[in-house]
Amino acid sequence: MSKTFDRFAGIAFLLIGLLFVIESQRISESSYGSAVGPDIFPIGLGSLLILLSARLVYETMRYDVSGEKGESINYRKFIIIFVSAVVYAALLEPLGYVITTFAFLLVAFQTMERGKWLQSIVVATLFSVGVYYLFATFLGGSLPGFPVF
Amino acid sequence: MSALNFLFDGFLVAFQWHNILFAFVGVLIGTAVGVLPGIGPMSGVALLIPVTATLTGGLPPESAAASSIILLAGVYYGAMYGGSTTSILLNTPGESSSVVTTLDGYQMAQQGRAGAALSIAAIGSFVAGIISLIGLVLLAKPLSNVALEFGPAEYFSLMLLGLAAVSGLAGKSMTKALMMTVFGLMLGTIGIDAVSGIARFTYDLPILYSGLEFLTIAVGLFALGEVFKTILEREHEDGAIAKISRILPTRQDMKDSTAPILRGSFLGFFIGVLPGAGATLASFFSYIAEKKFSKFPEKFGTGAIAGVAGPESANNAASGGAMIPLLTLGIPGSGTTAILMGALIMYNVQPGPLLFNDHPEVAWGLIASMFIGNLMLLVLNMPLVKVFAKIIQTPKRYLLPIIVAISFFGVYAVQYTTFDLYLLLACGVLGYLLTRNDFPVAPLVLALVLGPMIENNMRRALTISNGDFSIFVTKPLSLALLLIAAAWLLVPLLLKFKGRAIVVNEED
Hints:
A: mainly alpha; 5 helices; flat; B: mainly alpha; two-stranded antiparallel sheet; 21 helices; 2 strands; globular
C-alpha cells in the first residue's frame, strides 16, 4: 500500500470522473429529448466516481506511513520486455506472426536470464512456428503469416 | 421429474466425443494453471477464451458455445484442484483459495505424507464437485423460474446486488473496490449506445464504436498484470519440492477425512452460491469449522489431514456453487465466473433465467460435463500427481514470456486489430499498478460485463415509469434486492466501526 500512489490515483480518478460528467453533457445535446437519454447513466457514474475519489484522497490524509516498504523492483528487465512487446505489437501485421513472435520470445527469454542460447532458440521456434501452423493451417484461422515483398 | 430429463439430454451433449475431449483438455489445462505459479484461474480462463473460440470455429453457434464453456469451466474447477498441489509440496499456494491448505498440507508433506495429502485433496474435490453439481441440478430450474418473473426494475436491482456483493467483500478498502466497480461501469459505456444508437466517448474513432473489448481488458488486467508483477518483483526463490512416496491414503486417513470432506462440501456450496463470497472464504471458513469440530484442535497446523480435506473440498464446492447465480440469474459471483459470463456473451448466449429455455444444450450440457470432468480429475490426478508436481519446475524465464505471447495471440486471433494489443499492454500495466496498491480488479471486470445490461434495464424500467425513479423502490422485489445490496455494503462498514476484524476476500 502506498500513500503517494493512492493520492495520485485518487486525483486521477477524480479527473476521469469529472471528464466523464463534462463529456456526457455533450451527449445530451445530440439526444432526442427523452427523459432517460443515453447521458443519464454516464453522468451518474461520473459523479459517483468523483465522490469516491474524493473520499479516497481524504482517507490518504489519515494513513499510517509506517507500513510502506521499499522492495527492490526490477525495472530494467521489465522495461526491456515491455518495449519489445510494444514493438512486437507494432510489427505483427507488417512482418507477420512467425518472425515477430520468434524475435519477441528470444529477446524476452534472454532478458529474463542470459545464456542457454540454443535452448532459447529451440523453444522460441517451436512456439512461434507451432502456434502458427496449428492455428492457421490446422484450424483454418487467419494470422498474418509472412511479410509479402 | 423434468430436471432429470434435461440432465439426460445434457449428458447426450456432454458425451459427444469432441465434448469429452474438450472437458478433458479443460481439466488438464486447469490443473496445470492451478499448479503453475503466476497464473490463477482468472487469467487461465481469460487466456483460453480466444483459443477455444478458434477451436470451436467450425461448429454451429449453439454447439460452439456449449463446447467452449465446457472447456472453460473445466479450466475453472481444474485450477481449483491444481492449486492444492503447490500448497502441499512447496508451501506456496497456486491460487488464493489454497492458502489455508498450506497450513496442514505442507506439514504433512514434511512428514512424508505428501501423497496422502494430495490424494485426499483430490478425493475431497471430487466429492465436493459432485455434491455441488447435485445442488446445481436441483436448484437451477426453480431459481430460473423465479427469475423469469423479473421485470427490468427487478433485474436492475439484482445486478446492483451482484456488484455490491463483489465489491463489498473484495480487497482491503471498500472505497477502492467501489471506485473500481464504478470505473468498470464507465468503461462499459464507451461505444454505440444500444438504445438510442448514439456514439458515446468514441471521439470519432471507429475502433471504439463497438466498445472496449471485454476479453482484451480481462486478459490484460489478470494475465499480463500477474506476469509484470513477477518480472518486476523478483519473487522469492522456489524452495525444495517435497518428495511423494506413497500416493494412496491409509484407511485411517480416509476415516479421518470423510466427515471434513462432507462438511466442507456443503459449507463450500452454500458460500459459493452467495455472490461475492468466493472459494477463498469457503476454504477459510471450512478450516475454522474443522478446527472447532475436531477432538484434537491442537493438531491443526501440524499436519492434520482434516485441515486439508475440509478446505480443499470447500473451495471446489464453492466453484460449483458459484455457477448457480451465474447460470440462473446471470449474476457472476466471482472474478472467474465474470470471465465465464463474458465468454458466453461472446457467443451470444445470455446467462440468466432464459438460458435454460433458450439454450438448454449449453446449460445442461455444461452441467453434465461437469460430472464427467470431475470424474476425469479424480482419475487423472491420482496416478499423475507426480507428473503435475513436475510442472511446478517449469522455469520462469520461459513461462513468463510465453504467457505474454499467448495473450498476444489470443487477443489478436479474436480481434484482428493492433489497437487491442496496445490496449492489452496498457491494461497489463494498469492491472499491475492497481493490484499492487490494493485496488481490486475483479469488480472492474465484473462491472464491465454487467454495465451495459444494468444500463439497459435501468432505462427500460424508467421508460415504463415515464422517468420516475421511484419504480425501483415501489416494486417490492426490487426494493428487497436493493435493501440487501445496501446491507451488503453497510454491514461490513458498521462492523469495522465497531472494531471487529473482517474477513477479506481475496480475488479468485
